[in-house]
């Protein structure tokens, strides 16, 4: 299972600092949606230039104009981009067309989708590399949130999936056991007193 570090920060400088500390322990460097909105796609270029050996993931959360938004993110240096599963099929197909043009990939984020396993199968048929079983930061804070639903949905989908939703050292083993291809961790790494050590501990829990 790969480890993805979601850098939910707001400046390119902060992202470069986080990436430098965590990169030895992670496979995928994610530029979070707030970072892309705040700093722009030049942040993607900066991270790819600094870490050409890492998979760079632009969390675009595209909802419309799939081909255009994916194209500009790939041109900036992204290897993977996200489109929302609640977007229309034509938006997802457009992003997949851009990915084929660049030799890159599309991940469909199932945040907010009620029947995640069914939508997962549909979007993989449209050409998504894998889906993200995702409970966002707001959903994690809701009363009654249960992380285990994401794992159950991933297993039920029958397609390649990642999991994101407050993963930490106590939960990452269960993510691996669910058969996920990728575990995404944000706050557990960037919110730790020592970013490098936090990334290393998550890595150690799954190797
Ligand atoms: O995409 C996101 C929010 O929409 C986050 O990057 C993702 O949820 C991972 O962060 P955390 O581990 O802090 O939940």
TrEMBL record:
- The Orotidine 5'-phosphate decarboxylase domain covers 2-202
Q: What Pfam family is a match for this entry? A: OMPdecase
Q: Which residues cross the membrane?
A: none
What domain of life? Bacteria
The record's NCBIfam families line, in alphabetical order, gives: RuMP_HxlA (TIGR03128)
Q: Which family does it belong to?
A: Belongs to the HPS/KGPDC family. HPS subfamily.
Protein name, UniProt field: 3-hexulose-6-phosphate synthase
Which source organism does the UniProt entry give?
A: Nesterenkonia sandarakina
């Amino acid at each position: 299972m790969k480890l993805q570090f979601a850098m939910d920060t707001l400046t390119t400088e902060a992202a470069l600092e986080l990436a430098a500390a965590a990169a030895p322990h992670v496979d995928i460097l994610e530029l979070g949606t707030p970072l892309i909105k705040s700093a722009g796609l030049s942040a993607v270029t900066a991270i790819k230039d600094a870490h050409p050996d890492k998979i760079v993931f632009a969390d675009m959360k595209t909802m419309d104009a799939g081909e255009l938004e994916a194209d500009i993110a790939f041109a900036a240096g992204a290897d993977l981009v996200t489109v929302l599963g609640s977007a229309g099929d034509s938006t997802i197909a457009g992003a997949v067309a851009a990915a084929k043009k660049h030799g890159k990939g599309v991940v469909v984020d199932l945040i907010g989708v009620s029947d995640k396993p069914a939508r997962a199968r549909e979007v993989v048929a449209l050409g998504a590399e894998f889906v993200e079983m995702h409970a966002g930061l707001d959903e994690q804070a809701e009363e009654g949130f249960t992380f285990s639903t994401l794992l159950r949905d991933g297993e039920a989908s029958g397609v390649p999936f990642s999991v994101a939703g407050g993963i930490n050292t106590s939960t990452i083993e269960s993510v691996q056991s669910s058969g996920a291809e990728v575990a995404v961790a944000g706050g557990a790494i960037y919110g730790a007193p020592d970013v490098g050590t936090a990334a290393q501990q998550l890595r150690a829990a799954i190797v």
